[in-house]
Every structure is written in structure tokens, then in C-alpha cells.
Amino acid sequence: MGLIQAIRGMNDILPNEIAWWQRVEQTARMVMEDFGYYEIRTPVLEKLELFARSIGESTDIVEKEMYAFADRKGDLVSLRPEATASIVRALIQHNLHADPLVRKFYAIGPMFRHERPQKGRYRQFHQIDVEAFGVDDPMLDAEVIYMLRLFLERLGLVGVVLHLNSLGCPSCRSSYRILLQSYLADHAETLCPDCERRRHTNPLRVFDCKVERCQSVLGDAPILGDSICEECASHFARVKSYLSQLQTPFLVNPRMVRGLDYYMRTTFEVITDQLGAQNAIGGGGRYNGLVKDLGGPDIPGIGFAIGMERLILLLQQNQQVGTPSPRIFVAALGEASRTRGFLLLQELRKEGLAADMEYEGRSLKSQMRRADKLAAQHVVIIGENELSRGEAQIRDMINKTQNVLSLDRIVPTLLEMCGKDRKSSNG
RNA sequence: GUGGGUGUAGCUCAACGGUUAGAGCACUGGGUUGUGGCCCCAGAGGCUGUGGGUUCGAGUCCCAUCACUCACCCCA
């Protein structure tokens, strides 16, 4: 089609799937707020520097995936590729850390990364994002992970595994890095070209490689967990202990490395095997140095993000959502009846009843068909005969029964019949 | 950014290089003076993604381009 289309990798979310989004968002809000999180909304556009400094100059996200450009004034800006940086910026800018009550935030909204689209990967995608500041205790690490699990459980998600790791702190990681680099140097000729490059730029990332040769090399590689400092080790041990006491299953994955530089100590990912190549539906970790690096006070932080598209794809594979609500349909025959029906329709809506009609004066049969398609529970039929007597018929579409009522009793009667659940929507 | 696959009706898909491009579902009307689902009949709906080329002739073959899709890469 030569017509204007949506930009590549950016999708319309159409009415027939919006119920999924609403359910996920509502569930998220309920769970997060029970845990003491407050919603925050930050701009989708930020100064480029914010992302470069927080995520890391040499990460893939910053190097090649950002929607970055110069605005009309010449300032370098970018659509946000993730939410943490913006929330930290807002925290610092508004001194939110000074308020002991408001240090836990959640945000829901679109993110942008210029990658080649694929199943579960889009250029505009949506995240539910959670950040908690000011607490270094592993109790919070465990609680954050527990909340993530509870959220997914409440949605009825099955078949996902929580991977857990500790990346250590900057000091123990740098000593490990040297260890790993020398090991990789010894096996340099076996590595794939990508890993040969990564060996210098970001050796930890070699663990993510899916090439078999590389994985076999890594079998004997030094493990980060063996060389983290005592403090980090004990932090990690306590996280695991709390999780066990919370009966939250996890899989320690010493090879899990995450793609953003600011993570340290606890990191985690929720993995599925049902989405093809894009197997992470959520992930996060601790980032104690980040607030300070961005010019704020030296306070710790931890958070995670959930990919809504991926989550919903998974839910759709295993569940169904109903279409909303009780509906009343007004069927009218003849010009005067149509006018009366139109006025009645608006009265019903004013009373909070979901109702609709056929506006184009089709045959009664056609109108009944439409009512059936809409799954209307009741149809109000106003023909010329009824109108002349000041009456209408109410047909119960489920029981196939029908009776005559005077027009002025229609609204109260329908209110009584569907009043109880008129605001329910079975999601 | 690199590779593979696919673009035909609103949707799912047919059509050996050869008349006027078909089917199912969905839609509209009728079968029933004014009553839904099932059934039957009829109708409407297409610049075959776009632009070039080969050919007497292209939905079909070639090139380009755009989009979708899967994978690499990376991540949510």
C-alpha cells in the first residue's frame, strides 16, 4: 500500500487486544501499591547525555540503539531506551530522596530502541518499571524479587524461571575481570569473532554468547561468584536466604550478565522458553553507584523492568480474556420509533448502562443479528405499534423471552435487571 | 547492521507464464408484513505492497524498493 503506515517496529494496539493491556496494568498498579510504590511519570525525551552516562557509553543500547537526534536548538536528545535513568534524574532534580515516605516508584510507558524488529522485540515497546532507593539491605533485594514473582503469579503466568546472580561490586568485579581476561586470552583462537572483540571491550558479555565453541571454552572459565569479596558474598547469601524463606524459587545462574553497566551485586531475569529468541520478559538488579554518578547523593538503588509486549504474548498463549460487559441493544422500526429509541438509548447510558443501537434504519432481522453479535443481554424493541400505544418490548436474549412494558418503565426495569453488575467487566 | 522466508478481498489462504484472479470466514440483503444464533439463496467487496524490466501475454519470471516475519546480534 502506498499509504502512510506506522513506523517500522511501532505497533498500534487495537481495541480487540486492549483488554490484555488493561488487565496487566491494573494488576501491576494493585501489586506495586500494596508494596508501597508510588507512580511516577517522566518525559519520553531526555538529554542524550543522561542515557550515555547511566547506561554506559560502550553498551549496545547507547552505541547503536538509541533514537537520538539534535533538536531545533541543536541540543542532543534521545527517546528513552529504558526508564531507570529518567527516574534517577527526577529523584535528584526534585530531591525526592529527602522524603522518607516516597522512595519507591513505579512507571508504565513506552521505551524506544532502534533494533531490527522480531518476535517480542519492537522499536517502541512498553515497560512496567520499578525502582526503590535508599536501602542497601538484602531484605529489599528479596522483597523486590518477591514482588515481581507475585505480580506474575497474580496474572496467572506459568512456565517462567527466575535467574539470579551477583555481579559483585566495582572493586571485586574489576579483579575478576582481569582473571577472566587472561583466561580468555589463553583460549583466544577458539572464540568466535564477536567474542574475540568482546574479550577486550566487555569480557563478561562472552558468557551471553550462544556459539557452542565459546560455551565449551567457558566451561572451565573462572566464575565470578568465586571471586567476589566477602561483603558481596554475604549480601548475596542473605538475598538467597530471604527468597527461600519467601518460598520464591530461583536458579542461580553465574553466567547471567546484564547489558547495562550500572548493575552491581544482585541481578535477576525472568526467562521463558515460549517466546523464541526473546526469552527475557523482565529483568533488573541493584545499582548502588548510579545516583551518585548522575550527580546526586550517594544512595543505593534497585529496580527491574518488565516487557509488556512479551508478557502479553505469553499470557495470550495460555489464557483468554472475555469481552466486556452487559449490553442492551435498542431496535427500532420506523422514523418516529427510531427517534424515540435514540432518546431512550441516551437515557440508558446516562444511568450507566452499556447500550447501543443500529443507527441506519435496517430491517428488524438485521438489528437482531447485530444485537446478537454484540452479545447483548436485552433488546428493547420499539415498533410503530408499540410506539402508538406508548409501549416497548424487552427481549431477554439468553432466555429468549419477551414482554411488553410501557415506555416510561423501560429504564427503571433495565436498571433493576442489570443494575447489580453494570460496572463489572469480566477481564 | 547481516541473513532466510512471506506480501493476492476486512481475515485465513488458492490460482501450470495464457479468457473476466477464486474459496472459506466476516459483511449486506432476502428466504419469515416486525424478531438473533443453525440452514438455504443472492450481493457487495481487488491498481495481486510499490516501481521498473523480460515477454505476443506477468499474480506467476528478473531487479529494485517498502513492509511483515523468523533468526543472528542485543535485550524487555
What does this structure look like?
This protein has 427 residues and is an alpha+beta fold. The protein folds into 2 domains: 15-169 and 228-318, 2-Layer Sandwich (BirA Bifunctional Protein, domain 2); 328-418, Anticodon-binding domain (Rossmann fold, 3-Layer(aba) Sandwich). It has 16 helices and 16 strands. It has helices at 18-34, 48-55, 60-64, 84-93, 138-154, 170-186, 193-201, 212-218, 224-227, 230-245, 290-293, 308-318, 335-350, 364-373, 384-388, 410-418, and strands at 38-39, 45-47, 68-70, 76-79, 104-112, 124-133, 160-166, 251-252, 264-272, 280-286, 301-307, 328-332, 355-357, 378-382, 391-396, 401-406. The strands form 3 sheets. Strands 1-5-6-11-10-9-7-8 form an 8-stranded mixed sheet. Strand 9 (264-272) and strand 10 (280-286) form a beta hairpin. Residues 421-427 have low confidence and may be disordered. The chain binds one RNA strand of 76 nucleotides through helix 3, strand 6, strand 10, strand 11 and helix 12.
Write a concise synopsis of the structure shown:
This protein has 427 residues and is α+β, with helices and mostly antiparallel strands. The chain has 16 helices and 16 strands. The chain has an eight-stranded mixed beta sheet with strand order 1-5-6-11-10-9-7-8. Strands 13-12-14-15-16 form a five-stranded mixed beta sheet, sandwiched between helices.
